[in-house]
Amino acid sequence: MTTLKVHNIETAPEGSKALLEDSLKTNGMIPGLHGVLAGAPKTLEAYQTLHKLFTESSFNKEELTVVWQTINVEHACHYCVPAHTAIAKMMKVDDAITEALRNETPLEDAKLEALRTFTLQVTRNRGHVTPEELQAFYDAGYGEQQVLEIILGLSQKVISNYTNHIANTAVDAPFQEFAWEKK
């Protein structure tokens, strides 16, 4: 049961109506998360803006998926893990990557595994990483820009994951086949 109101275009505060119309146009539906975030127009705007900015970062589709899902799984987000599984499928990300992320198993690709590991370290330790952890990330081929872009992705995911925990947002029908629970 949802504990925060899920808005539609008619019930949303005025400042959220156009944002929800954009969600509908972009997604063919208003995702439940967007409906919940609509209760605070600036929060919905921030989430959508962070999403756009993160997708325009230096990360490719596999790397975006690694950052998103690593954070979603660590935060045990019942809504975002299935949603990003569907998004990864739409982006044609290898199912083996998605399954490893969902199951918290190492990725076969060493560079992607370094990204997963560092993202997890940043998330778990709230940005407190050791010089050795940072160097391992750099040694894998990443740089300062990607460190900061992980923080951008984490900012987006904190908004969605925490909102979904509080709201107990129902998983949207198109994502239900990818339902997930933390092991």
Sketch the major β-sheet: none
Question: What is the β-strand count?
Answer: 0
Percent helix: 55-70%
What is the name of the CATH superfamily of the domain at 59-178? AhpD-like
Oligomer: single chain
Write the element-wise H/E pattern from the N-terminal end onward: HHHHHHHHH
CATH topology of the domain at 59-178: AhpD-like
Cα-based radius of gyration, to the nearest Å = 16 Å
Structure report:
The protein is mostly helical and 183 residues long. It has a domain at 59-178: AhpD-like (Up-down Bundle), CATH 1.20.1290.10. It is 64% helix and 0% strand. It contains nine helices and no strands. Helix 1 runs parallel beside helix 3 (41-55), helix 4 packs antiparallel against helix 5 (80-90) and helix 4 runs parallel beside helix 6 (95-103). The mean pLDDT is 97.
What's the short version?
This protein has 183 residues and is mostly helical.
Primary descriptors:
mainly alpha; AhpD-like; 9 helices; 183 residues
Topology:
Elements: H1 14-27, H2 32-37, H3 41-55, H4 61-74, H5 80-90, H6 95-103, H7 110-124, H8 131-139, H9 144-167
Helix pairs in contact: 1-3, 3-9, 4-5, 4-6, 4-7, 4-9, 7-8
